[in-house]
UniProtKB/TrEMBL annotation:
GO biological process: tRNA threonylcarbamoyladenosine modification
Function of the protein: Required for the formation of a threonylcarbamoyl group on adenosine at position 37 (t(6)A37) in tRNAs that read codons beginning with adenine. Is involved in the transfer of the threonylcarbamoyl moiety of threonylcarbamoyl-AMP (TC-AMP) to the N6 group of A37, together with TsaE and TsaB. TsaD likely plays a direct catalytic role in this reaction.
Name of the protein in its database record: tRNA N6-adenosine threonylcarbamoyltransferase
Residues of the Gcp-like domain: 24-307
Gene Ontology annotations for the cellular component aspect, listed alphabetically: cytoplasm
Coiled coil (UniProt feature): none
Lineage: superkingdom: Bacteria
Family: Belongs to the KAE1 / TsaD family.
Residues binding Fe cation: H111, H115, D301
Gene: tsaD
Species whose genome carries this gene: Halalkalibacter suaedae
Cofactor(s) it depends on: Fe(2+)
Length: 335
């Protein structure tokens, strides 16, 4: 079965053709990072305009690269939320037009379900119950899945998302947007000398908090400056990253034990983080727990993951109508 998937929730315009929810026939991603860089973050109006300019070309390229024709498709899938509403609408309207023109069923996809299902593109099968650690620009969540399409959020961030914290700390240090990869690179050359706070919260909580850590980084920089001392930027990055990783891995580990998990999936842009990947791989190297982390290009936003998530809706014939809208506040547990 062939799904054409479209993703325009933020600053990547992407289209993909996915076979049987598993095989990537094409996955074309056009990033707008260069256009947003000088503003230090994603500017919604600029994002929308880029999506409008790009969407037709990207979809045609995805179809061509897959070596298929619109008539071969079984469904069209699109990210309906969360994301920037003006950006989402471009993808939603393109998907509706294609569905209408070629008489295809339409599937609305939750962006975070997409990040999670990126893992289905790299393993033979997902095995339940599983735990997904979602670490992205807008989300930090531990999600328990007892079966396909069932998402129970057992922990989430109470303030900043982890990617957001990375980007804000990076901006404070003077690194370009998006800062996550730069901090990751610097951290590998530094040492955790600062021993910044670890936000464990209540002993039994799976929630996260990163704004305190972000403030600790800013205060530390300020204090060093006032004392006229230099801090190695590599050590600052390493200290920040060590605190983030220790909490992410620690809470994941506790949830795996409590919920009797066989398979751990990592999802979202921050899953590209080398420090996090190494720490998780070390944790589960000699264990029965099957750890899966997507390759870098499937961690950040892309349409292939949207096609993978859409396949579970296609199987159940859960389609949406032409009244589909961009829905920034869409609830994963209800999706
Ligand atoms: P969401 O998926 O929650 O809607 P988003 O789509 O904007 O948010 P993603 O594209 O999944 O987020 O991820 C982007 C984030 O990933 C950015 O904050 C970026 O800094 C971060 N990121 C990318 N690579 C790395 C890395 N190597 N280390 C840390 N963070 C990284
Ligand atoms: Mg992005
Ligand atoms: Fe994302």
């Amino acid at each position: 079965e062939l799904i054409l998937a479209i993703e325009t929730s933020c600053d990547e315009t992407s289209a993909a053709v996915i076979e049987d929810g598993k095989r990537i026939l094409s996955n074309v991603v056009s990033s707008q990072i260069e256009s947003h860089k000088r503003f230090g973050g994603v500017v919604p109006e600029i994002a929308s305009r880029h999506h409008v300019e790009q969407i037709t070309v990207i979809v045609e390229e995805a179809i061509k690269k897959a070596g298929v024709d619109f008539e071969d498709l079984d469904a069209v899938a699109v990210t309906e939320g969360p994301g920037l509403v003006g950006a989402l609408l471009i993808g939603v309207n393109a998907a509706k037009a294609i569905a209408y023109a070629h008489d295809l069923p339409l599937i609305g996809v939750h962006h975070i379900a997409g990040h999670i299902y990126a893992n289905q593109l790299i393993v033979d099968s997902l095995t339940f119950p599983l735990l997904a650690l979602v670490v992205s620009g807008g989300h930090t969540e531990l999600i328990y899945m007892k079966e396909h399409g069932s998402f129970e959020i057992i922990g989430e961030t109470r303030d900043d998302a982890v990617g957001e914290a990375y980007d804000k700390v990076a901006r404070t240090i003077g690194l370009p947007y998006p800062g996550g990869p730069h901090i990751d690179r610097l951290a590998a050359e530094g040492t955790d000398v600062l021993k910044l706070p670890r936000a464990w919260l209540e002993a039994d909580s799976y929630d996260f908090s990163f704004s305190g850590l972000k403030s600790a980084v800013i205060n530390t920089l300020h204090n060093y400056k006032q004392r006229g001392e230099e801090i190695k930027v590599e050590d600052l990055a390493a200290s920040f990253q060590a605190s983030v990783i220790e909490v992410l891995v620690g809470k994941t580990k506790r949830a795996v034990e409590q919920y009797n998990i066989n398979q751990v999936l990592v999802a979202g842009g921050v899953a590209a983080n080398k420090g996090l990947r190494n720490a998780l791989e070390a944790e589960y190297a000699d264990s029965n727990v099957n750890l899966i982390i997507p390759p870098l290009n499937l961690c950040t936003d892309n349409a292939a993951m949207i096609g993978a998530a859409a396949s579970i809706k296609l199987k159940k014939k859960e389609f949406v109508g032409y009244d589909l809208n961009g829905n920034p506040g869409i609830d994963l547990e209800q999706w």
